[in-house]
Design goal:
Layout lengths: L12 E6 L6 E2 L4 E6 L4 E5 L4 E6 L5 E3 L6 E5 L30 H26 L14 H9 L6 E3 L5 H7 L3 H9 L32 H14 L6 E6 L6 H12 L4 E7 L2 E2 L2 E2 L12 H4 L3 E6 L3 H16 L5 E6 L17 H8 L3 H10 L6 H24 L15
Parallel strand pairs: 8-9, 9-10, 10-14, 13-14
Antiparallel strand pairs: 1-3, 1-6, 2-5, 3-4, 5-7, 11-12
Helix pairs in contact: 1-2, 1-3, 1-10, 1-11, 2-3, 2-8, 4-11, 5-6
Length: 419
Amino acid sequence: MKMPDLATTGSDIRLIRWLIKQGNTVQRGQPLLEIETDKAISQVESIATGVLKQIRVPPDSRVSGGQVIAVIELMAEPEPALEIPATATPAANLPTGVVRTAYKRDFLLGMYERMLLIREFEERVKFLFLEGSMPGTIHQCHGQEATAVGVCAALKPNDWITSTFRGHGHALAKGLSPQELLDELFGATTGCCKGRGGSMHVGNMDKGMVPGIAIVAAGIPLATGMALAFKMQKSSQVVACFFGDGAVAEGAFHEAVNMASLWNLPVIFICENNLYGASTHISKVMKNTRVADRALSYGFRGQTVDGNDVIAVFQATRQATLDCRSGNGPVLLELLTYRRTGHSRRDPCHYQPTVEREAWSERDPLDRFATWLAKQAGVSQVDMTEIKTRVEGQIEETVQKARQAPLAEPKDIYQGVYG
């Protein structure tokens, strides 16, 4: 096992202590050691299930990214049984006004499979990053799968989205393949942006997704400009613009939504409110923490939605698209959700209270949707098992191909650059 590149400035990492003794067994994903970087003290998880045969670096040592720190003798991981979690939020506690009986079985199972694909993709990427297989950093969306899938399921193929640095889920929901996405994360020329964007800038213009913009709120004025173009062309297209709650404090947000309102532009502003702008809770930066209320001050409609309920998100977005296509101007959807990982993989996430994390874990979007689906006529445990098997097989095949994908050559650095 190598030390993942967790230091933000390229400086050495201090290995504080080992959490597992040499000779003991360790599970994949179990905290293995504690480190200190230039940013924080955090834990590093084991990349495999097995026996910790050898510790190569003693406690209180300086290590670099990519340095071998331990040897783990592999053991076969038990195949987990697919169970519908009993702790998922019961249907009786879901928001009212959401009609759940009007959808076909294949549509519902398709949304579930897409959500599971995002979750499994992110989980595999986490370990690929920990083992040092891919460059750069990653900002993941564990726990926010319903926002991406619910929104994109309500869009037409020729509608567009803009994204952020936390864009893996948006990309998969909009139709990018896991292969072109993972190839991009590996820096391969077969990636969706030819290996030049990496994790923070994924997208595919042929599939209606502008590559993600890492500057907070920078995609919002871009979406407004795209919506202006659609209106001038007399097109029926709309653009859905994803951003986080932290972006609401930026001037770009206020300028863009004001312009969109003045000109009745067909843009849906999608605020994925996961309560934290990096490590700062929303209550510390806003007196009124209901983001949807901002819309009224600019003269258009805002709505707060349970962002962990994929059907609620789908219905709210579908109504928003109808408003936009009818010339009624923009809509602001605030999707209440929660990320179950740090701001980035370098973030130990100590600022999230345990009680808060546990409460949101019980409202996990995948668990809730699976629980509800299992009670529907025509949906069986066999269906759910087949989806899980298919997704796992797809992810495994994707990883094997990405490891062999061709990397860009230094001589290609000027290709695609405006002269």
